[in-house]
## 1
Amino acid sequence: MSAEQHARASGNARITQIAGDQITYAPGAGPAPRAGLGLPEAPAVLVGRDGPAEELLGLLADGGPTVTVVSGLAGVGKSALAVATAHRAAELGWFGDRVFFLRMRGYAPGGGVAGPDAVREMLRQLGFRDADVQGSPDTWVALYRARLAEYARVGQRVLIVADDAGEVAQVRDLVPAGSVHRLLITSRHRLVAPGFTARQVVLDELAAGPAALLLSAALPGDPRPSREPEALAAVAEQCGRLPLALTVAGALLAGDPGLPVTELAAQLADARTRLAKLDSELDDGVRAAFDLSYGRLPEDQARVFRLLTVNPGPDCSTPYAALLTGEGPAGLRPKLAALVRASLLAEEPVGSGRWRMHDLVRLYARERGEERAAEDGREAAADKLLGCLILQAEVAQHVLGVDAWREDGPGLPSVGNVLQWLGAERAMLVAAVGFAVESGRPEAAVELGTRLMSYLQHYRYRQDALTVARLLLAATEGRGSAEEVGGRLYDLGLAWLGTDRPEEAAGPLTRALGVFRENSLRMGEGKALNMLGSLYAVQNRWAEAEQVLGEALAVFRELRITHAEGTVLAGLAQIYEHTDRLDEAVTALRQSISLMRDLNDRHREASSWNSLAEVLWSAGQREEAVAARERALATHREFGNRKQALRTLTALAGWLIELERDEEAGARYEEALGIVTEEGEPYEQGEVLGNLGLLHRRAGRLDQAREMLERACALVAETGDRRAEAAFTKALALTLYDLDRHAEAADAFERAAALRAGLGDAEQEAVARAAAAELRGRAARPRWWRARQPPPQDASPPQR
C-alpha cells in the first residue's frame, strides 16, 4: 500500500490515510494497549520433531519465505509444532512481543473464521478498538497492512500464527507485504491456490522410538512403560504412531492404573474395534477428528476415498484404484491428488502412482465404505479386483515357469515385467488371499493363493508362503474335497519346510499323507511322501528319508509323472551325498537335470545343478563343480531370482577363493553386494562386505579393505553374530596395522579379544590381547625402533 500517510490532528488525535480512506482516532480512543506474547502455552512435550522444528525455525529466520504452511493428518501434531517453534523464535528475540495467534477453526462443523473476520481479529490484537475499525473489509485489510508496514519501517518483525486453517480464503488477506514479517499457518490441507505462494512443510507420523516415548510421557512415574516396553511399542504401532491416538491411548492407561499395557495392546489388536477404543469416553478422539476432514470432501472424492480400501494391501497403484472406482486414470488422478492435499492420502514416493493411507485413516475409510457399500458398488469392486489378480497371477505363473512349464510369446509380458509387478504387488497379493477368505470368497482365495505358492517358494519369500498356505487351508477345510484338503495340508507342510522351524512340517504332512491314502489318491500320496523324506533329511534321519523317498519314487514311476520323479531323485541325491555315496548322488542328479530339462522346468533344473555342484566339489571334481554352479547361476539371473542368485554367488565366490581365482571371486562378491544392498538382510550384507574386504586385503588394496571391513563389522554387530564380528574385527585390526595406524589397530584387537572372550574362545582371545599389547608397547618406543619390527602375532587373514 504505497499511498499511506500519518499526521496529528487537534487534541493529539491521530489520522491515518490509506488509499483515500481517512480514519481518525479521537484522543484516548486510539489503539488500545496490546498484551504481550499472544501464543498459547508451549506444549509440555514435543517428542520426535527435532528435524521439522529445526526446519521450521529456519523458515522463520531472516531470508526465509513470508508464508509457511505446516500440513498433515488430523492429530499429527501440527499445532504443537507451530506453537513450540513460535515460542522458540520469540525466545531468540526475533519478533519481540509481536507474536500473534489466531484460531481459524477451519474444520469446525459450523464453518471456520472467515477471512475478513480474521483480519478484524488481527487488528484487535494489534491494538485497534472495535469502534475504530470502520469501513469495508478492504479497508480493514489496508489498515492491517499499514500497521505491519509501520513495524517493518522501524525494523520490528511480526509473526502471525494462523492455526487450523481450512482453505486459502481464510488466510489470504493475512499475508504480510514484503519479506520482513512471517505468517505461519497450520492446516490439514496443503494450501495451494493461484496467487498464494507458501512453503509447504508436511508433517508425518512419528518414528517408532519417539512414538513410544510420547506414550510414556503421558504416564509420569508409572512403572508400566519400563516394565512392558514391548507392549508399549505394540500400542504405539497400533496407534499408527499418530500423536493424537497416542495421547488417547495414554489417557486410557492413565485413567486405569491397574490396566496392563499388554491388555490395552490386545484390545487394540482387533482392527475392527480399534477406532472405537481410541474414541472411548472422549469427545475429541481419533474418529471425531477424521470426521471433520471427511465431512469436507466433495462426494466424488469421498467415494474414491472409501473404495480405495477395497484394496487390501498397504498401498494401491493407480491402475488398481481405477479398477475399483471405475474411473479412467486421467480423471482419477486429480481426485487422488485432492485427497493428498487433504492429508487423507499420500503418494509414496511422489510421482510413483502408488497411494498409501495412514493405518488409522484406512480403518476409518473402511468404516465409511461399509456404510455406503451398496451405493458405491463395493462388493462388485472387490469381485473385479480379485478376478483381475487371479488372471494376472496365472499369467505370471506361466511366464516364470514356476509350475513345471514355461510359456512365452506374443501377448505375454516379459520375465522382467512380471517380476516387477510381483515385487510391487506381493504384499497386496498375499493380503488379497486373506481378504478373500474373510469376505466369504473361499474359491477366489484358493484360485489366487495356489497361483502364488510356487512363486513364493521358488523366490524364497518363505514367510509369505507360510501365510498363504495357512489361509488356503482355512479356505478349504470343512468345504473342500479330500483331494483339496490334502493338497492344502501339503502346501502348509511345504511352507514350514522353508522356514527356520522345519519340524512344524511334520504335522500337516502326516495329516496330508493320511488323507491321500484313505482316499486312494496316489499322486497326493507320492507328494506327501516326498516332502516327508525332505523333512527327515533336514533332521539328518537319513535311513528314514531314503525309505520314504524310495516309496515316493515308486509311486511317481508307476503313475509316469516324470516331473515329480525328478524332484524325488534330487532329494535322494542329498541322502547319497551325506552317506558318502557320491557316485550314486551324481547319477541321480544328472537324471533329475535331464528330466527337468525335457519338461522345461528351468527353476528345478537350476536347483539340481546347484546340488550337483556340491556333490562334485565333495568328490574333488573342482572345475566341474564350478561349472555346475555357473549353470545354476545363469538360470537364476535369467529369471531374476535374486535370493537364489545371492546364495549361489556367495558359495561360488568361496570356491573360487580356494582355487586362488581371487579376481573372479571378487566379481561374484561384487554382484552379490549389489543384491544384498537392495534387498538383503544386514547379516548377509555384512558377510559379503567382510569377504570382499578380505579379498581387497589379500590384493594389497588396504584402504578399500578397511572401508569394507568397518562396514561389515557394524552390520554383523546389529545382527548379534559375535563370531562373524570377531573374525571381521581381527581382519580390520590387521588391515589397520598394514596401514601404519597402529593405535587404531590395537583398539580393534582389543575389541576382537572381548568378542572372543564372550564366545568362550580363550585361545583366540589371548592371541588378540597379545597383539594389542605388543602394538601399544611399540607405540611407547622410538620411531627408528618401531620401523624395524615385524607385524604383530597372527597376521594372516582370519578364516571363517
## 2
Amino acid sequence: MQRQYKFITSAIGLTCGLSLFTYFEANKNTQHQPNTAALKSHYNINQIPTSLTRVLNDYQYTPNQHVAILALLKIYGEKEIKDCQNSSETNVWLKEVTQHRFLRKGERWDAANQEKEQRILKAAPQIEQITQLLGMQESLRPPASVQKHIAIIPGATEGRVKSRINLLKQSIAEGRQPTKIIVATGFRTLQDNEAPEITDPKQRTEAYMAEMLLLKSKINIPYQILAKSVKGNIDRSNTVDTAEFIQEDPCFDHADVIVYIEQPFTRRFELIFKTQLQMRDTKIYPFSNPIDSNQPKYWIGDEQARRIYYLFPSLDKQYREEKTHHSIDKRTP
C-alpha cells in the first residue's frame, strides 16, 4: 500500500443546491410508508405557523418534512412551537432551538448526551417514520455501471471504521474496482476501549487507528489519510472538509466516487457535495447496509441542526433585509 497524508484546516458555509445522489439502488423492502397524520396526532401538531412554513420551505423541506421537524422538536423536549411575527425572527428561533435541542455537545458517549439518546430510544416507532420522512435512506448501492472509482471511508470510532472497511471489501468482492482510497478522518484522541494494541500515546489518534485498520484489511490499493486538526474536543475531518478536498484535487475531475458508510445518507450530504462539485462532473454514490434496528438513531437531530445552521447562509441576509423593508413600509404614511 502507498501512503500519503493530507492536512486541511478550513471549513466554509454553503449555499443551497439540488439533489446530487440521483443514481443509486435502494433495498425497497427495508422501507415502510410513514404515517404523517399519525405523527401530527401523536404530538398534537395542528396548525403550523405561516412564517415557520415559509422558512422550512426555504430550507428545502417538504410539507411532510415540516411535520417531521416539529415532531422531532417535541421528542427532544421543546414544548412550544413559537409563532413569530416574521421570517427573520422565525429563522433566528429555528436555528437557536435546533442548536439547543438537536445538536450534541462533544461526543455521543459523553454524559451530557445520554438524555438525548434516551428520548430517541423511547420514541423509536416515531423516530423510524421521521427518519424516512427526512430522506435518511439506508441499504444503498451504486448502479451496476459504476466499477472503477475513488473510495471514501469517513473516520469514526474503531467499530464503525471496521464496518466501513468491510463495506469496501464487500464492494470489491461484488466486482467494483477502487483506484484510490481516501480515509477522511482526524486526530481525535482514542477512547480507552479503542485499539488497545496501540500503546504509544502519541499514536492513539483516530487517524493512526484508521490507517492501521486499513493496513490489516490487506486491501492492496493506494490510499491517502485526509486528516484535520482543529481546536476543541472533537478533532476530525467533516463532510464539508471532505467536499472541499475533492473540489481541490484534480484526480476527482470526471470521476466516480463511492462513499462507504453504514449510517444513512442525508440531504445535508447531498447539498454539500453538490455545491462543491457542480462544475467538476464528479458523481458521488453511497454504499451502505441496513442499520441495526436496535441502534439509537442519535444522529437524526445532529443532521437537521447542522443542515439548518450551516447550509443556507444567504437566507439570513434575505430575512433581515425583508424585516428592514417591512419596518420602513410600516412607518411610511
## 3
Amino acid sequence: MKALFLACCVFVSQIIFAQSSIKLNTTFTDTNAGFNSTNFKISSSVKDSAEAFNNTKKLLNKIQSAGFAAASLDTFYCDSNNCFAQFFIGEKLNGFQLKNSNIENTFLSGTKQKLNRKKSVLTPKEINIVQQKILTNAENKGYPFAEVFLDSFKINPASANINIEKHELFLFDTLSIPQKVKVKKKFLSAYLGIKRNKPYDESKIKSIEQRLNALPFIEITHPHTVWFDKEKAKVELNIKDKKASVFNAFLGILPGGAGQKVLITGEAKINLYGMLGFGEQLNLEWNKTMPKTQVLKTMIAVPYLFGLPLGVDVRFELFKRDTAWLDLDGNYGVCYQFSGMNYLKASLKQKNTIVLKVDTTFIKQNQTLPNALDIKSNEFALEYYFMNLNYRFNPTTGWQLTAGGSVGAKSVKRNSLINNLMDEKRGETFSYLYDSIGKQNFQFSLWLSLDKFWKIHKRMTILTSLKAKYFYSALVFENEKYRIGGMNTLRGFTEESIITPYYGIANLEYRYLLSKNAFFFTFFNVGVVQQAASNKIDFPFGFGAGVSLETKIGVFGITYALGQKHNEKVSFKNSKIHFGYTNYF
C-alpha cells in the first residue's frame, strides 16, 4: 500500500509534463476460473499518465462490481512511454455482510445503513457502491490518495471487513495563474472554494471547469492541473481575459393607437462585468414602452467581499408613466454566497410613488380617490438564486432558479391638490376620502423564475420556463400592479400593456444553434393574469419565431410575434416586430 501511494504521488506531481501518447499495460494476479480478463478491457493508448490512472480506477470499479469485491490495484507506475497497472483479483463472491474495521464516521456519510446490518447480505454491486461512497467522502475531506479495501473474509456466515488507508492529508495551496488576467486570485479562490490551507476537496476540483465557464469575463485556454507536493495541492488555472461586458439595444415596431399608425418602443442596456477583477457587475438599463413613458434601472453587485462568502446587491428603478405618476424603487441587499454565484439575499425594498397629475374630474364625478395614489412602502425581502448552465450567454443545457418573497407595510400620503379640492355637494374638501384608508397597510409579494434547457441534439435545445409574481394588499393601487407584455415577459403583446396584481407565464421555445452566440428559434408562451376592467382571470397567449446572427461587429436579431387575449384576437395587423443588437466589449 505504501509503495503504491508513493508511486501515485510521484505520478500526480508530474502530470503537467507534456506527453504525446503512452501505452497502458494491465496485468492480473490471483485469478481463478470465474475471471475472464477479456471482459475487462480498457484502451491501451492514453494521452498522459493522468488519464492512465483514471482509467485504472474505472477498471477496478468494473471488476469489483462484477463480484470480485476483494479486487485491488496493487501497483501503478509510469515511465516516459508506458504505464503499468497490476490488479489483485481474488475470489468471486455472490454477496456477504460488511463490517466496519477502521473507518471514521466522517467518511461514512450515506453508507451507515448498509454496514453492520445483521443477517443482511450485500451484492457485489452494493458493496462497490459503499466502497466508492467512502472513497469519495475521503477525497472530499483532504485525502486524495485514500484506498478502500476488503479483508478478513469469512465463509460461514459470509462476511468481510471494510478498511480505509487514508495516507497523507493534503491541504490546498494558493491558486496559480500563469497568464496575466484582470480577475483577482482572491475572488477566484472564494468563488471556486479553493482556499489556502483548507483540506483538499475533489468535488471542488471536478467543478472547476463548469464554474469557470459560468464566469463571463474569463476563458479557459487549457484544462486545469493539480500538483501534489509536500502535503500541498496546488491548482493551476489556465485562463485568459474575455470580452464580457455587453451592450444590448432593442427596437420594437408595434401597431399604434390613439391616432398613431405605428408605435415605436426602444430599450438599451449596458452590463459591465469584472472590470476591476472582483467579479463585480454594473448594469444600466433604459427603455421606452409607450409615449411619454420611460424606465431607468441601475444595479451594482459585488460578490465575495474581502474573500468572504458575503456580497452586496443594490438596485434602483425609476418609472415615469406619461404625466400621471413617478415611481422611485430601491432594493438594498446583502448576499450570502453559496458555491459559484449562487446566493441567498436579504434586502430592504422601498417604493415611493409621486402622483404628477391628479384627475380632479374623476374625483368630483365619482366621489372617490383615483386609482393611483402617492404611496410609500418598506418591505423586508428574501431571495434565493441558483444557476447551473453550461454557457451563460447562450446555454444548451442546465437550469437556473430565482425564488423569493417580501413582507412589509405601506402608507398613503395625502396629496395637497386632493386635500384642497372642494366637494361642492358636501361643502368640504375631498380630504375626507383619505379617512377610510389606514395609516399602515400590510402587504406581501412572492416571485418565481425557473428556466430549464434540454439539449436534444448537438445543435438543438429546448427551453422551458416559468415566471410568476403575486402581490397582496387590502388596497392595491394601479401604480403597484405588475406591468407585463413584450420581449422580456409575454411575447406577442405591446410592451408592459397588461396591468395585473399577479401573473404566471409558461414558455416553450425551440432553438437551433447557428454559432456559439446565435440561433434560430420558435416559441409559444401563455400567461394567467387578472383583467384590468372586470377583475376576471384571462389567459393571454403568444407565439412566433426569430433569429439572431453573429457577425464581426456583434449579434443582430429579429423577432416576429402574434398574440391573443380576451379583447384582442390573433391578427397579422397586430403583429409585433422587434429588432435587436448585442455587442461584447
